[in-house]
Amino acid sequence: MKQLNFTLLLLLCTFLAVNAQQTVQLNIHHKLAQADFQFNEGAKNNLEHDFNASRLQYYISGISIIHDGGMETAIDDLYILVDASQATNVGLGSFDATQVEGIHFHIGVDSVANHSDPASYQAGHPLAPQFPSMHWGWAAGYRFIAYEGKG
């Protein structure tokens, strides 16, 4: 009987620990002023000059989750290539957190990844060769932001 009670208690603790996990997803919705961002749509900058964008891609890395009163949990080796022409919804993983308060991240890639060979990554990985290219060349590194348009 003690064995059964201990097993039930262990299962309950495991169940509670699993339920304390929060799945965190990063959803990016690009905006231009109050409107949804659109390519080749005319807009004005802060100097009232006309411009429009035909390409906007950028890397996000160095991601950490801020939770439970300011605790910070880093997510290692996650690189996201954001393309503003499509929705960006990326699962960041499950974390032992009650309340997620924010996400910190960097635009671009860290220095080690920046000088790595894109061909060393499997197809589909954000740091693998892209078309159009997001890399200047092996020695120069990645383009952190690719913004093209007219102004």
Can you give me a brief rundown of this structure?
With 151 residues, this protein is mainly beta. It has helices spanning 2-19, 111-114, and strands at residues 21-28, 31-32, 35-36, 43-44, 50-67, 71-74, 80-83, 88-96, 100-107, 135-137, 141-142, 145-150.
Question: Main attributes?
Answer:
6-stranded antiparallel beta sheet; disordered N terminus; 12 strands; 151 residues; globular; 15% helix; mainly beta; two-stranded antiparallel ribbon
Task: Please give a structural write-up.
15% of the residues lie in helices and 45% in strands. The chain contains 2 helices and 12 strands. It starts with a helix and ends with a strand.
* Coarse morphology: globular
- Mean pLDDT rating: 85
Q: In angstroms, what separates the terminal alpha carbons?
A: 78 Å
Question: Would you list the SSEs in sequence order as H and E?
Answer: HEEEEEEEEEHEEE
